[in-house]
Amino acid sequence: MSATTKLAISSLLCLGLSPRAFAWTAAEPQLPRLDQSSWQQSLDQVPQHTREETGRQATEEWPYGPLKTRGRDIVNNRGEVVTWTGANWPMNDETTLPEGIEFNSVGSILSQVASVGFNFVRMGYAFEMVDQIYDREGQDVSLELSMIMGLGLENGTRVTQEVLKHNPNWTTTTTRFEIWADVVQKAYNKGIFIHPDLHVGRAMWCCSHTDGNAWFDDLYFSTCQWHRALAYIATWARRFPNIVSMSLRNELRESWNRTDLYYNWETLVGNMTAGADTIHNANPDLLITWSGMQYDEDLSALTSVGKNILTAPCYKCTAIVDRARRDPVYFDLDSYPWGKDKLVWELHLYNTSEDVDTGTCDIIKAGLYRNGFNALGIDAPVAGCDLTGDCPPAQRLTPVILSEFGQTPEDDSIYTNELLNCIRSFTTQNRVSWAMWSLAGYFRVRQGIQGFVDPKGMFNTTFNGWHDASVVEKWWKPWVSAMNGTKKY
Ligand SMILES: *[C@@H]1O[C@H](CO)[C@@H](O)[C@H](O)[C@H]1NC(C)=O
Ligand SMILES: *[C@@H]1O[C@H](CO)[C@@H](O)[C@H](O)[C@H]1NC(C)=O
Ligand SMILES: *[C@@H]1O[C@H](CO)[C@@H](O)[C@H](O)[C@H]1NC(C)=O
Ligand SMILES: *[C@@H]1O[C@H](CO)[C@@H](O)[C@H](O)[C@H]1NC(C)=O
Ligand SMILES: *[C@@H]1O[C@H](CO)[C@@H](O)[C@H](O)[C@H]1NC(C)=O
Ligand SMILES: *[C@@H]1O[C@H](CO)[C@@H](O)[C@H](O)[C@H]1NC(C)=O
Ligand SMILES: *[C@@H]1O[C@H](CO)[C@@H](O)[C@H](O)[C@H]1NC(C)=O
């Protein structure tokens, strides 16, 4: 069978699969393993290097992968603890290309990122990038077409030329994944890990209850296509030693468009364990990050001791009506092949939270502990926990990272911002890896606006200087330095 035929077949399979094919039982998640392996087989388009060829298992070179978890820590193959500090670099908006490359070269953007001491970049992407490869019988979309699809003919053509001016190594027909590969390789040279983060299904600004990207089987969130994309990215990532991790899905939340979807701990576990199986089958070296409920604020039912996921508190969730008649279900990470040493929890916290109190540092720390950082085995923060009375210990030690937080005002108000300074002290005291939101001081298109300026981006609007250089010097750099992040050199 030709690669093209296989791709076409697997594309049809995905459309034909009902979400029910992913029915979950507590003992063993059932997966359409046959279909999944056909996705695997159909990835002939992706250069398939063995790990030996690419040196992924080399013990002599940074980052000494594959990485794994050991208790609360992420460790390299030499057993050394790995700590990440970094930033989000968005590429999930309509053009599906990293922001800023029309103003500056990838190399010099990453040099500036590295100059802060950052060693980690979370690249938020839209999984329709992979759908489009399948739709086009294996052919990826070009830089120019991506820009035109996102910005229209006139601006798309113009912005493409701007990109080429700053990144002369590319042409109009360089594809999205070639550009991504260039980013990853340049990041490798600067000692930066790239973390592909499946941010949305359809390319757009994230996140709301009504954007069609909220929850499994939402309007733009085909669960089947999600699996296919995870498998694709995990396979693609084998070539790159500095991709040691990838996410399952950013900021899950209840959909207000498809109101017949079950949104609760049980369906979270069912879908996320199946997704982790997909990643692990495609690339067993990768660490897998798993985010929580209500915009990735809450993992409590999975990290805390003694929580029956049928009855544990769950904000805005679909009730499980027969919960009292069913046997309790306790999540057991160790029962999954990737659970023992590949799973990393990830959480977010913003001051716009509806249900988590971000008013004082004591209460913030109690919330962070309760919502999942208990998995680090740290002491419960007494002052806040006395107020909440809700700080159960962990059922199992597991790494937890804070992969977004804020919002981060890139101005003098950052020095007195209660939430941000609290997060700074919490992550430093407890050695929690983190990524700030975001690098982008400008989005070429966001929320329907072309040329969207974001003063909370760390870069200024032209990605060749900081929005506020003194904030970077006096606030971000000391924090990064205190974290002792893993260095290449
Ligand atoms: C950029 O140039 C390098 C050699 O300098 C080459 O290996 C690489 O493939 C080029 N990248 C693209 C996207 O053309
Ligand atoms: C979801 O519903 C809201 C309210 O009816 C609507 O404004 C929005 O466009 C819908 N979302 C999608 C993706 O269709
Ligand atoms: C995934 O989530 C959907 C809800 O949108 C649910 O119907 C389905 O049962 C879940 N899958 C599993 C395996 O739990
Ligand atoms: C959140 O913090 C930003 C500053 O980063 C501030 O402008 C905004 O008013 C705050 N919002 C809330 C709900 O506190
Ligand atoms: C083209 O981009 C500019 C921002 O660079 C924007 O102001 C303008 O509205 C865009 N044109 C169209 C047709 O969207
Ligand atoms: C961004 O910062 C750089 C370096 O300071 C500066 O050259 C550039 O003009 C700035 N861009 C804008 C739009 O101010
Ligand atoms: C960083 O290293 C210093 C000096 O060894 C140590 O005191 C500090 O606790 C470390 N910080 C973290 C977050 O591990």
Walk me through what this model shows.
- Residues 35-67 are annotated as: Disordered.
- The structure is a single chain.
- This protein has 489 residues and is an alpha/beta fold.
- The protein has a single domain (3-13, 55-140, 175-483), classed as Glycosidases (TIM Barrel, Alpha-Beta Barrel).
- Helices cover 34% and strands 13% of the residues.
- The chain is built from 16 helices and twelve strands.
- The protein has helices at 3-16, 33-41, 51-54, 106-115, 128-135, 143-151, 153-166, 176-189, 223-236, 265-282, 293-296, 300-303, 361-371, 382-388, 418-430, 469-482, and strands at 68-70, 73-75, 85-90, 120-126, 193-200, 245-247, 287-291, 343-350, 400-406, 434-436, 442-446, 449-453.
- The protein has a four-stranded parallel beta sheet. It has a four-stranded parallel beta sheet with strand order 6-7-8-9. Strands 1-2 form a two-stranded antiparallel ribbon.
- Helix 1 (3-16) packs antiparallel against helix 2 (33-41) and helix 9 packs parallel to helix 10 (265-282).
- The longest helix has 18 residues, at 265-282.
- It is globular and about 60 Å long.
- Mean pLDDT is 90; it is low at 3-11 and 16-55.
- One 2-acetamido-2-deoxy-beta-D-glucopyranose is lined by residues 210-212, 219, 257.
